[in-house]
Specification:
The chain is built from no helices and 19 strands. With 254 residues, the protein is mainly β.
Length: 254
Amino acid sequence: MTIYFDAKCAKPYIVADITGATRIAVGQLRIKETATYHDLNGATLGSLTVNEMLTSTSKAIVANGLGIFTPASGARTPVQLGLYCTMPTNGSSMPCGGGVAQDIRSLKLAVGAVTPLTLVPVRNASGAITKLTFSGGGSVVTGPIGSLKLTNPVTTKLVVQGGTSYATTHAKGSAGGFDLFPPTPTSWTLTDAAHDQRILISVIDNTTRASNITITQISTGKTLAIGHVDQAGTGSITLSGSTLAKITSWTLEE
């Protein structure tokens, strides 16, 4: 399967190959997949290997699994990723969740998070889905380099093993549907009440897929940082003290 950036199918974004598929039982399929990600110029961003399970019943389809993303350049530090989602056949709200665990060597720290979300389809007068809203809460843990492991103990649960609790978060926002690059207006809000901070990511251009980032202090409304990234997750962020840091594939560089 190949997913393209453009309508002419000339610029591939994701090239995925199913390397294994095993039927476990009626309505259950285990899939192994490798996906390579490319930027707009055709350069390889990295590769993702995934082990996932699809379970289908008369009431819902459940997808869950774990993967490892390895960047194509830089330190090439692997990132653990996980996902689960229940999609009812009646089109109602969908309980889902995502997880990540990553060694950030420049900070000499491992960071992991699991965020359960409820996706709610919003329909127009004709019954067509016009966008999805999402909300939920999660937890963040930190630990020494190499100390965190993301697990999927049951189909609808992700757990980061190791480390200590850093914060609880609340995520809220909306998107224009299950689009690879959802159109404006699309935004995501993540609130970290324990550290008095909120981050807002807003898509600002449907063609370049550029997004703005704003981090504020919840108690005062003060802007702590502003940033800008393109669809490959590359850009920069400026802290309130005028310190500028580069962002490469959504990893902050010192």
